[in-house]
Every structure is written in structure tokens, then in C-alpha cells.
Design a protein that fits this description.
α1 packs parallel to α7, α3 packs across α4 and α3 packs antiparallel against α7. The protein has about 280 residues and is α+β, with helices and mostly antiparallel strands. It has a 5-stranded mixed beta sheet with strand order 5-4-3-6-7. It has a two-stranded antiparallel sheet with strand order 1-2. A hairpin with a 2-residue loop joins β1 and β2.
Length: about 280
Amino acid sequence: MSDAKQPTLIDREPLTAALFEEWDILDGLLAGLTDEQWSSPTPLPGWTVHDVVAHLIGIESMLSDVEPPLTADEVPDSPHVVNAIGAFNERWVAGLRSHSHAEVLSRFRDIVRTRREALSAMTQDDFDAPSMTPVGPDSYGRFMRTRLFDCWFHEHDIRDAVGLPGEEGGPRAEYSFAELVGGLGFAVGKKGGAPDGSTVTFALTGPLARDIHVAVHGRAAVVPALDAPATTTLRLDSRLFTRLCGGRASAADHAGEIEVLGDEALGRQIAANLAFTI
């Protein structure tokens, strides 16, 4: 029997419908922003709203074989760039920084129109085909789920920056949340230091209310259920949970919004180390 990882197979039509809806929502959000809001700092170090949109343009452009406006040597040094992915992102972010907000919005509309046409022409077999993705080898459909995740997360970075909250439940959120949950084993075991034999439950309230269980048996992994009460349970709103996982918020700044049951020291340690997304 092969130990090879089975690809993630995702139905093309509902996923692309959710991704297209996400692009439409971003378009509507951006179209209503003032120049001052476009220049607002976001929870991402060094990036304004304008920069976040430039990043989104960059990834979709890469998927359309469009070269960045700057070469690697032309990108200025920035303290928030700490890896190769960040350096690539800056080729678009820095390269589009001199463009007007209207030009950046127009470019966003153009590239998502191109990507919408390309994805609409694909078949289910195309989505099931092997692909290199940001999380390693998987299916092309999995890659597109990570694209929805990225766009959805950045939508809320923008909303948080300008004080315009939006809907954080529904199909777009569910696809995005599936990507997020996939990294929880790493966050709990490797980063959070949960000891072997321990179990953790995240009891989420809010728009993505659910219980998520992680068991540590050699390595930490998300499991469907636990056969005994968790070693520690963290109860918090899903909106805060996503921002902690994304490194957009600090557990110390929101300690009063995180209820810990069971092993409180372990629970606080895990909450403080939840950030794991790129």
C-alpha cells in the first residue's frame, strides 16, 4: 500500500463561484474607498491597503504569466521582508506603489477578469490535475482554494484597516477556513509546544462557530472528536481566531476575549503562538 499523500479533490463549480464572488466583493469594497483609506496601514507590517491590492494583483498576474514590474535587484530592502515569498511579493508591491489608486483598481479588475475567463474554461479534470501549490504538491483545485483563502483574508485586512467590517461566514469563509484548519496541528504542536498525549479544543463562537479538536500523538493533528475532555479548551470568537492564526492580532492584547478551560498555562501558551500563515 502506498504512503503517498492523496490529492485534495474539490468540485470546480462551487469553488470558482466562491472565488468569483470574493473578487466581486473586493471590487465593490475598493471602489468605495477614499484616497485616505487606500493609504491606510493594514495589520500587515509595511503594507497599506494599496499595497495589499498590489499583492493580490501580483499573484493573479503570476498565474497568468505576467512578469512583475520590478526585478529582484530593483526591490528596496524592507524590514518586513523575511523570506523568498516576501521578496517576490515586493516586486509587485513596490513596483505598483507609484501608481494611483485608480490605476491599481483598474489593474485589479483587468487581471481578475483574465483569471475568471481562464478558470471558467477549465474542466473538473483540470482542477483535479497535479499542481505545485503554496502548501506543496497537490491538485490545481487545492491551489485555487488557497487563492480564495488569500483573497478572503486580505479582504478582512482591508476592512480592519478602514473600519468597514463585512460578512465572515458563508461559502467563501468555509473554503478559507478549511485552509486555515489544515495548519492547526503545526500551530499547536510545533509552535504552541503542546506535549505528547495532550489534547486541545478550540470552541469557536461567532460566524464560524464550531469545535475543532487537536490531539498530540507523536505529532499534533486535527481529529474529528476526542474520547475524553480536552487537556485545554480555548473558547473565543472565530473572528479573533482567524486573526490570531494569521498573525494579525496578539493574544496578549485580547486576553480577556479568550476563555481557557482546563490547563490554563498550556492554553495561553498555544493562544500566544497561533500565528502560522504565510
